[in-house]
Amino acid sequence: MKKKVLVIRFSSIGDIVLTSPVLRCLYQQNFEVHFLVKERFFSVVKNYPYLHHIHAFHHLPTEQLSALKKENFDFVVDLQNNWKSKWLCMRLNKPFKGFPKLNLIKLLVVLTKQKWLLPKVHIVDRYFKAIQPLGVEKDNMGLDFFIDEKNVSQKIRGMVQTPYSILVPGGSYFTKQIPLVKIEEILKTHIHQKFIAIGDSQDYDKIKSIENRYTNLINMCGQTNLDESAFLIQHAEYVITSDTGMMHIAAALKKKIISVWGNTIPEFGMYPYMPAEGSKIIENNAIWCRPCSKLGYSKCPLGHFKCMRGLNLIYK
C-alpha cells in the first residue's frame, strides 16, 4: 500500500510552482500525494498529475482540519513553515518536517550586506530537506507547470502565430518592479522585437501610459488568466521578467529568461531554477544598500531606487 503524504504550501504562485519537483518525486517514488493550498491559488496546481487530492481553504488552513484528519496521513511535508502550518501539523498529530527557511541569515545579510553568509543552495533543494525522512531522491528534472489549454481563448491562440517575447514588468512589491524608464529602454533598444506584456490590472495601467508610443508593445496585463499567461510564455522566444511567479513558470516551461533584480538578491535562493540555456540574471551590484529587504517595499527606503534605475538592460 502506498504511503499517504500531505504537502503544505499555502501561497503564492511562484512558491507553489517551486514545490513541483517535490510533488513529482514523491509521486514517481510511489507515494499518494495530497496538497493543501489557499483557494485563490488552486488554479496553480489544479492540473498537476502528481496530486491525488487538493485540499483548498478560504481564510484559515484549519477549515480543512477535520477533512485532513480523516485522511490519516503517514507524513506531513511543511513547505510553508510558518506558525499557521506548524500549528496545523501539530493538530494533525502525524510525523512532519519543514525546510530550512534561513530567515535569520537573510536578516543578517540585509543588515550587513555580506552575501557570502548565505549557503549556495536554491530553495527547491531546501524543500527536499523536508522529505529526507521518506528516502525520496531528487531527479534533477527542474520545475513543472501544466497548462489547461481549454482555458486558453482563441484570441490568445492567435497571438502566438508570429514571433514575440514576453515582458513581465510587475512584482509583489514596488521595489521588485521594473520601472517604466527601463521598460522604455528595452523597447527602444529592441525596436524590431515584438513584446507582449503580461501581469495584473495595476500593471495594465502602468503599461497603458506608454503603449501608444511603441508599436512593438502589446499590453495584455490584467487580460489573461493564469493558463493564458503561461501559454503566452510557452510560445515566446524569451522572457524578460522581474522576480515574480511568472519567472518561475517560465523556468518550468524551460524558457530563456532574462531576470531583472531590484532590492532583493538571487542569493536568497529564488532565482530561476534550471531554465533554458542562455538565461541571464541582471542586477546592480555597484550599490552599497542592496539587499535592503528579503521581500520588498512599497517604495525605495532611500528614495533613489538605484537598484533598478541603475541597471543596464541592453542585452543580446
Question: What does this protein look like?
Answer:
The chain has 316 residues and is α/β, with parallel strands linked by helices. The chain folds into two domains: 132 residues, Glycogen Phosphorylase B (Rossmann fold); 161 residues, Rossmann fold (3-Layer(aba) Sandwich). Helix content is 31%, strand content 15%. The chain has a six-stranded parallel β-sheet with strand order 8-7-6-9-10-11, sandwiched between helices. The longest helix has 11 residues. The mean pLDDT is 96.
- Indicate how many domains the architecture comprises: 2
Query: What is the CATH topology descriptor of the largest domain?
Result: Rossmann fold
- Judged by helices, strands and strand pairing, the structural class is alpha/beta
| Relevant CATH superfamily of the largest domain | Glycogen Phosphorylase B
Q: What about the largest sheet?
A: 6 strands, parallel
The value of Rg in angstroms is 20 Å
Order of strands side by side in the largest beta sheet? 8-7-6-9-10-11
In terms of DSSP E residues, the strand content is: 5-15%
Shape: globular
The CATH architecture of the largest domain would be 3-Layer(aba) Sandwich
Residue stretches low in confidence (pLDDT < 50, at least 5 long) are none
- Distance N to C terminus: 53 Å
Instruction: Note the total helix count.
Output: 13
The succession of helices and strands, N to C, reads: EHHEHEHEHEHHHEHEHEHEHEEH
Helix content: 25-40%
